[in-house]
Amino acid sequence: MNAYEFLNLGQSKKPRRSGLTMMLDKGLGSRSLDDLLNTSADYIDFAKFGWGTSAVINRDLIINKTSRYQAAGIMPYPGGTLLEVSALKGKVDRFLKESRELGFTAIEVSDGSTEITKEERAKIIKKSREAGFYVISEVGKKNPILDHDLSISERLELIKSDLAYGSNYVLIEAKEAGKDIGIYDADGNII
Length: 191
What we know:
Layout: E1 22-25, H1 30-40, E2 46-49, H2 59-71, E3 75-78, H3 80-88, H4 92-101, E4 106-109, H5 118-130, E5 134-139, H6 144-148, H7 152-165, E6 169-172
Parallel strand pairs: 1-2, 2-3, 4-5, 5-6
Helix pairs in contact: 5-7
């Protein structure tokens, strides 16, 4: 039982469809993951291994972490940058196979750091779903100059397309700062 349970703060129990929380795993070690899970597992739905950290961490540690996230009811997934690199190298199938072997249960499909055609993006989403992954796609660019070139209607069209091809959820790129990118102005306010 949580402290101050009588206040009923309203967080629904897992699995939930609203009030979902994604956290960024920036390369947590085993002890840090223990602390995170002990204090917050009930409030986390997704754990994104961000910034390509999965490519520089020992496989056994990743497998250990993904299994622990899953045991806590948290869906682990590699950030979209690694998938983008895989797409550029023509190695999406290998990426999906490796992701499955590492224990990831979701895949992020994005083109925030690269250029992937709408058709290729649709194929990757469909292929990821067929491989049994939960798909979270992301719309927008990490570079504010490139991101500002995307109109609201282009973003909406891409969101609709991603959902039509099988994305479970679509995120709007906002980098970690949430300022001057995506739907945020220079002060971090939603436009």
